[in-house]
Design goal:
This protein has about 250 residues and is an alpha/beta fold. The protein is about 45% helix and about 20% strand. It has twelve helices and ten strands. Strand 7 (about 125-130), helix 7 and strand 8 (about 150-160) form a beta-alpha-beta unit. Helix 9 (about 185-200) packs parallel to helix 11 (about 215-225). It starts with a strand and ends with a helix.
């Protein structure tokens, strides 16, 4: 069996392990981040900016956090905005909470949403609903497209630290007992490489000992900056597509 390693935010870890094991992988996994509710001031900024805006949800976590914050009032809070979702899982989650999703890009990434929006947002206000660690693709691209950007961190990502599971994964890579290491966000890649460098002095084991997969273009770009380009990037930036691409490689 293919030995697959990955890190995921703690609330998503158990389900991710089950999904990967159901596809036949031998899984090594560890929490990458813990998730904390954003500051009250962020939600206040968002509520003030929403009427008449284009609201873009960057993840299922952003949807879940807003649902936790607003409860049954969630659809009402966003009723004055045109709601877009970066991926199908996020769109499905929003609709399960009662929001109407008006669209999503063909490529489930920040690049995809910019390609989808094109010049249609010129003169409009765009509210990004995401974490405090999003990529700068949108923070640069939306103003360049002529729109006002309101970038809202509805949740915070905090490094889960050097857990026993993470140490076991790094040892497996060092000893060439892992076939693939999959990264599902730029921040998870940066955090993992930081821990590898702290443990081994550098990240050379990531180049010579294991194949590396990235969930999408922003994560692939982060890996290039870390000195380890991805061996595989799926066509669609979902966790399931990432698993399928690795399984078929």
């Amino acid at each position: 069996m293919t030995v697959l390693g990955f890190t995921r935010p703690l609330p998503k870890l158990e389900a991710a392990v089950r999904e990967a094991e159901a596809m036949g992988f031998t899984v090594m996994a560890a929490p990458s981040m813990s998730i904390r509710m954003g500051d009250d001031s962020e939600f206040s900024r968002m509520e003030s900016a929403l009427p008449g805006s284009v609201a873009i949800f960057g993840s299922t976590t952003a949807a879940d956090i807003c649902r936790e914050r607003y409860g049954e009032r969630f659809p009402e809070i966003f009723s004055g905005a045109t709601v877009l979702a970066i991926g199908s899982a996020t769109g499905d989650r929003l609709e399960s909470y009662g929001l109407k999703v008006s669209g999503m890009p063909e490529e489930f990434s920040s690049y995809g949403i910019m390609e989808m929006l094109g010049g249609s947002i010129a003169g409009r206000r765009v509210v990004m609903v995401r974490s405090d660690s999003g990529t700068d693709v949108l923070t640069k691209g939306i103003p360049e497209a002529g729109a006002e950007l309101v970038d809202v961190a509805v949740y915070k990502l905090v490094d889960a630290g050097l857990t026993p599971e993470l140490e076991a994964m790094m040892d497996a890579i060092s000893e060439k007992r892992m076939d693939w290491m999959a990264f599902t966000s730029p921040m998870s890649a940066r955090t993992f490489f930081k821990h590898v460098e702290e443990r081994f002095g550098d990240s050379s084991i990531m180049s010579s000992n294991v194949k590396v997969a990235a969930i999408g273009r922003p994560t692939a770009e982060a890996l290039v900056k870390l000195g380890r380009p991805a061996d595989l990037v799926p066509e669609q930036a979902t966790f399931r597509d990432l698993l399928e691409a690795i399984r078929l490689s």
